[in-house]
Each structure stands twice: as C-alpha cells, then as structure tokens.
Predict the 3D structure of the following.
Amino acid sequence: MPNEILTTVYSAHTVFLQRVGATQGNAVIPFLRLIEEDVQRIFNVYRDRPKTAANQAAITKAIDESSRGHLQDYINELKKSNREIGTNEAEFAASTLNKIVIRDDFESIVPSAAQVNAIAIATPIKLSETEFTTYTTMMRNYWVKWSDEIDAAIQSGFINGTNINEIADTIFNEMRLQKSTTSKNLLNRAHRSAKGVATMGVNHYSNQARLAFGEENSDIVKGYRGISVLDSSTSRVCQRYDQVVRTPKDKDWSAFVPPRHRWCRSAIVYELDERFSLDDKDTKRASSFEVDGKRDPKPVSSEGIYYSKMKELKAADQDNALKSPTLGKAFRKLNNPTEFAESTVNSLGQPLTIKEMRDADNELGLILQEMERKKKAKQKA
C-alpha cells in the first residue's frame, strides 16, 4: 500500500526529530553555565561589602541583566534552529515523494522557508485539552519565567541572609547546575523546561512544514495520517490518532494536528491520492513498548493502529500502556482495537474519563458498566 511506505519513512524520521529536540534542549546548558559563572562573579565583587539596599539593588540588577541576556540568546538560537528544521522538513518531503512516486510527470513543489515560518508562527500550539499558546509566546515565556525565577531567588537570599557572603553561598548552592537529571536546583529545572520547549518547537515546526507542503501539493496530498510513537509512554489522545486519517475539514482537526499536548512526540504524514502508485518495499516502523517493566525496542509492520500493536502485549503490559488496569481489562474484553480507539475520545478528539466512557452508549460503555456492577456486588458481599 502506498501510504505504508510513507508511514515507514516518517516513523524513522520522527525518531530522528526527537533526538534533534533533545539536542536542542541540552543546548541550553552552556548558557546556564554562563549565568552560573556570572552570579558567582557578581557576588564576588560585593562579598566584603555590607548588606545594604544599594548593594542589593546593584547585585540584583547585574544578575537580572545577565540571566535575561543569556536566556534570550539561547531562545534566539533555538528559534533559528527551528526555522532551519521547517525548511529542511519541506525539502525532505519533496525529496521523499520524488523518489517513491512512480510517475514521470510528477515533481513536488517545495514551500519557501518564509511560507513555513509564517504558518508556524501564526498557528496556535496546543498544550492541553483547554490550553493553547503561540510559538512566539512559548519562546518568550521561557526566558521571562526563568529570569524571573532567578530574580526571586536573589530576593529570597537577601531576605533570609545576614551578610553578603552568606547570601552568596546560599543562592549559588540553590542555583548550581548538578549532574542529576532530577535535581530541584533552579538551573536544573530551567534545563528540563528548555527540553520541553525545544521538543514542542521541533514538533510544531516539522508538522507545520508538512501542512505547508501539503497545501502546495494538493493534487497528490488528499489528507494526513497520524503517526504515534509505539511505546508505553504515549498519551491516550495520541494512541487514539495513530493511523487515523483527517483533513482540515474534519471537526476534530485542531485536536488531530500535533503537538496535542506538552512533550507530544506524535507526527502527521501525507495521505496520497490512490492514482499515484509508489515503490512498495518492506514497510516497518519502530516500537518500544515496556515488556515486563523493560523497554523492548523492535521493528513492527507499518500496517495497523497503536492498539493493534498493543494487543500483542501481555495483560500487565497493556495495563501499563493504558495507565489503568480497568481500561486494560475492558480493552481485552472488547477485543476490537479500532472500536476501542474510537470509544476513548469524544467527537473533538479529547480523551474521555473512565466515567465518561462508562456512560457512553456503545460496546465499551456496556463492558465498563458490567465491570462496575460486578465490582460493587463484590464490595457488598
């Protein structure tokens, strides 16, 4: 089938983009190191001076200028990198289709870098079911938030410290970057936040570039197919949209286009007009479900949705992927991956609670209702 080839290609490409996002997030470390060094340098100038309002104001101003400057520099680099990703994505799409579409008269049109950038900036980014932002706001919020956090740490240090030396040591210890990925130190938290922003930025730009390409090549691109990461960390809404095809005319379009939530790793790929035959070879995509508590990376067929792959797992691993033993049991009782996928979200693509699923007038609802009755009967016995 033509579109399985694109699923194979873009599943592998999505893994590559996830690595790019992680690299971009880690690129903040040198900038955080500069802030760390500046904080130490600025306090060293004042260590032997008295704790006065004037000295506090001078230290606070110097550190604020440093942190805002370095964080803005990082964001500017991140935005530049994302613009390059958008351009490369459009070119990658053209190169991919030109190689696999078997028609002498076919030559794809590549949207310009300016087109992709304009679409990415103008299109809202979904952070949750009810929360949206813009790309520009997301980028600005990062450096504003963490420079404000640093300012607050300085103010707290002066309130609680008795002299400049004590204040400096306290603040530096609270801010110092540590090797631990779970450290609660301020700059470690800023690092983790940068990874989230970078992931969202890469996901947003790459998918918007695909939409821009689709608009330029509407003679062959008739819709978009969702591709979700096949592992146990995938969100329910992304589980549901794996291998689902949508067009901008569908009412759940805004829920369909990734990113669908914070740290979203899903992607979209082109659904092509069946008139165009493609070079059909071995079609596989990566999966990495947790099996017995450990990652089990292996290639699987590009055909079939997320839940059809999950059906092959043991019950305990299915429960883990669904984040709910109740849903896992209902999934096995229903024994219909496609129907299960359609029954776990509403018409706008928003994930339903177990109660909402139980109240629905469908097969999954009946199964959950029966499970609830048995549970209450067992509790009364």
Remarks:
- The radius of gyration is 25 Å.
- The chain has a mean pLDDT of 87.
- The longest strand covers residues 284-291.
